[in-house]
Amino acid sequence: MSVEEHKNSLQEAFLRLFVNRQDVYAAQQNKGYLKVEQSLTTKIIHDHLQGKITIGVYQLDGNNNVKWLCFDLDPGMLEDTKETAHAIIRECVLKPDPKTPRFYKKAVLLEASRCPDASYHIWVFFEPFLVPAKVARWLGLKILEHANINPKLVEVFPKQTELTKDRPYGNLVKLPLGLHRKAKRWSRFLDLQSFEPLSTSCVFNVQGVSFLESELAMICGFEDKKHVQIKFQLPKNYKPLKSKEEKQVTEFLVKYWKPGNRNKLAMVFSGYCLKKGISFESAYRIIDQVTIATGDEERGQRLQLVKYHYRNRLNLTPHLLGISGLKEIVKEALS
Questions:
Q1: Rounded distance, CA 250 to CA 259, Å?
Q2: Contact criterion met (CB below 8 Å) for 316 and 305
Q3: What does pTM read for this prediction?
């Protein structure tokens, strides 16, 4: 296949796999997207792949059917996007039994949407391409439930099961292999296990998940899945940090130990330590050193918070904050 033939085939594959309505698309700007009410053609897809424009595609068609399910993993929301991506992929292509996977491996594509940033899209395709949006969303939330992932931290597309007069277009997802206009980084497809970049030709191997009519009817008959049961688990063993590591963490926290943030920072740091298996002794020493270095007048209260979190960790687990809480505080401090 020549280079030109490959380009043409890639454009056709994108149109076939990702585009469910061709009467409208969205063009990415530095901030957000601009809806474009004109035909989405292979020429526009070509320009997207060349980085001339970056487009988003609306997922639901006029009959509330979709071609794919997509999980959006944002490092601003998750403590470890790669670990979360691995968990979702395991649920999709390995469990409940590697010999009888839930989906065909060829039905799943992993995309780094702003490579090399750890921001991922996981695409699950359907065969013969169209299933009710309700089925796709139910499956997405069910996968998160089995993977023990909080759906508030991972976006599941489709976000809605039907279009309405107020929402005639629904949500969109950025088409893969494009240039992120603000981050100036390209999208890449990755290997499901190694996370190493794949050739663009991987799209030619996609084989979607198929369903019997009876299976679709059964899922459509379920009530909308609004609640996902999450089983929170903390590490069984807690280990102290090395002295050098404790010093580094202390220096980091001191920079953001500002009045108004101190109590919240002590709480989210304790939650982070509990989730990462850091011992009480290390967490206590770090907060102790931070309060001394900053002349914190409520030092005793901060240390009491650390004790409280470790003593009550089993009851507090569902509400523990971690790296996402730390990022939020750092962002507030820098704004």
A1: 17
A2: no
A3: 0.70
Report yes or no on 163 lying in a domain: yes
Confidence of residue 332 (pLDDT cuts 50, 70, 90): very low
Please choose, from the candidates 143, 9, 16, 10, the residue with its C-alpha nearest in 3D space to the C-alpha of residue 70.
143
Contact 39, 22 (CB under 8 A): yes
Cα separation of 63 and 194, whole Å? 38
Does an H or E element contain 25, and which?
strand 25-28
Contact assessment for residue 285 and residue 240, using Cβ atoms and an 8 Å cutoff: no
What pLDDT is stored for residue 314 in this prediction?
54
**274 falls within a domain:** yes
In a domain, 30, yes or no: yes
Give the structural domain span for 41.
3-220
The DSSP result for 209-258, as a single string, is EE--HHHHHHHHTSPP-----------S--BPPPHHHHHHHHHHHHHH--
- Which pLDDT does position 333 carry in this prediction? 44
Radius of gyration of the chain from its Cα atoms, rounded to whole angstroms: 23
Extract the tokens encoding 161: 């099961």
Greater model confidence, 315 or 27: 27
